[in-house]
Amino acid sequence: MVEARTESEGERQHMQVWTNTNSDDRAAAELAEIVAEPDKANRRFRDAMDSVTRTNNTASLAGLARWTSSLWPHVDQTGAPEEFRRLMTWAAGTTHLATLAGIARRAGHLWDHPEDAVEGRLFLVDAETRAVFADVVPAARPSFGEVLVLVRADEVRPGDTVLGATREGVSVASATLRDVITHPDPYTADPRPYDPACGCAGCAQAESWPGPVITLATETPWDACDPLPAAAPVLIRAARRVRSAPAGSAPRDAAHPDTAAALAVLAGTPLATVTDEHDFTGFDDYDKTAHGALVEPRGYGRVAVYWLVEGLYVTPEDREPHRAELRILADKFRAAGWEVEPTSVRCVFAWRRSASA
Question: Quick one: pLDDT band at residue 27, thresholds 50, 70, 90?
Answer without folding.
Answer: low
